[in-house]
Amino acid sequence: MVTEMFALPDVECLESTHDLANTSSGVIPRRLGFTEVRREQATPPAAPSGCGIDVVWRLNRPTPPINGTPAP
């Protein structure tokens, strides 16, 4: 999915959000290289098992290689 989204020319970053209480959902963006950028009050309706705080993760578009040389 990440590869397909970055294939679109206007996509500069991807964001993923999950409830702070859902710790399992935080594993996925972390493994994909996303960075946690903020925590914010969730907009209702929140899941009954949630705590009402959203964790927002972001992955920026990779920089293209210079002169055909892959980035390290």
Q: Could you explain the architecture of this structure?
A:
- The structure is a single chain.
- The chain is elongated and about 50 Å long.
- Strands 1-3-2 form a three-stranded antiparallel β-sheet.
- The longest helix is centred in the middle third of the chain and has 9 residues, at 23-31.
- The chain has two helices and three strands; from the N terminus they run αβαββ.
- The chain is of the alpha+beta class.
- It starts with a helix and ends in a 12-residue tail after the last strand.
- It has helices spanning 2-6, 23-31; strands at 13-19, 35-41, 53-60.
- State the distance separating the first and last CA atoms: 22 Å
Using the CA coordinates, give the radius of gyration: 15 Å
**Uncertain regions spanning at least 5 consecutive residues:** none
| Strand portion | 25-35%
- The ordered string of helix (H) and strand (E) elements is HEHEE
Strand arrangement across the biggest beta sheet? 1-3-2
Number of H- or I-type helical stretches: 2
Would you tell me the structural class of the helices and strands? alpha+beta
Major sheet attributes = 3 strands, antiparallel
Number of strands: 3
Helix content: 10-25%
Average pLDDT, all residues: 89
Coarse shape: elongated
Task: Give the SSE map.
Elements: H1 2-6, E1 13-19, H2 23-31, E2 35-41, E3 53-60
Antiparallel strand pairs: 1-3, 2-3
Task: Provide the descriptors you would attach to this structure in a database record.
72 residues, alpha+beta, 2 helices
